[in-house]
Amino acid sequence: MIIILAPHMDDEVLGCASLLRGSVVVYFTQSHPSFPGWAEEQERMMEAGGFESELLDYPIHHLDTIPQARFIGNVEKFIQEWRPDTVVIPFASYNQDHRAVHEAALTAMRPNDKLHFVKRILVYEEPDVLGTFKDFRPAYFRPVDIDEKCRLVSLYKSQVRGHRSDDVLMAMATIRGMQSRLSYAEAFEVLRWVD
């Protein structure tokens, strides 16, 4: 069982298209009111991607203003409920919402005797990681069908932008594929891996 933590709708497909099918995606925010039709887009994505979801409703672009204890509690609840082997979290990029979810997830998955122990913690890469102030250090690569990934991203019509274009996604998948001797790949940092 895989849980993907997505601060925003579209983070799950931008960073984890190769892991979507059969997973559970936890969305921390829904969308901004200036993006009409987001609910229909998210519904189409769930159907096309073959995953389940949990929807929280925190304000988009303001997760850094909410006490971390709330997010930690949310993540602990989902870990206890779903008992995943793997949790995939966003990279702590310049996006304040991504940093807030990343930090809460680290605390929520600390080893202790009261919480379900998550054997694998992976950090996903998205286009906004490029040029960030921190280095992304991938150690795990998964093959990705880049045409399918681009098709899925296009389902979020309200979210498609130049820095998330098919060309950018193709370039990232090509570089990660070259590093892993795969045609196209997605890359992940490994924070924990226990067999």
Structural class of the secondary structure composition? alpha/beta
The CATH homologous superfamily is called: LmbE-like
Briefly, what CATH class? Alpha Beta
Report the radius of gyration as a whole number of Å: 16 Å
| Unreliable sequence segments | none
Question: Roughly what percent helix?
Answer: 25-40%
Which descriptors would you attach to this protein?
195 residues; alpha/beta
Characterization of this structure:
The protein is an alpha/beta fold and 195 residues long. It starts with a strand and ends with a strand. It has 6 helices and 7 strands; from the N terminus they run βαβαβαβαββααβ. The relative contact order is 0.19. Helix 3 packs across helix 4. The mean pLDDT is 88. Helices cover 36% and strands 21% of the residues. A 7-stranded mixed sheet has the order 3-2-1-4-5-7-6. It has one domain: LmbE-like (Rossmann fold), CATH 3.40.50.
Give the topology, please.
Blueprint: E1 2-6, H1 11-16, E2 24-29, H2 38-49, E3 52-58, H3 68-82, E4 86-90, H4 96-108, E5 120-124, E6 140-143, H5 146-154, H6 166-180, E7 185-193
Parallel strand pairs: 1-2, 1-4, 2-3, 4-5
Antiparallel strand pairs: 5-7, 6-7
Helix pairs in contact: 3-4
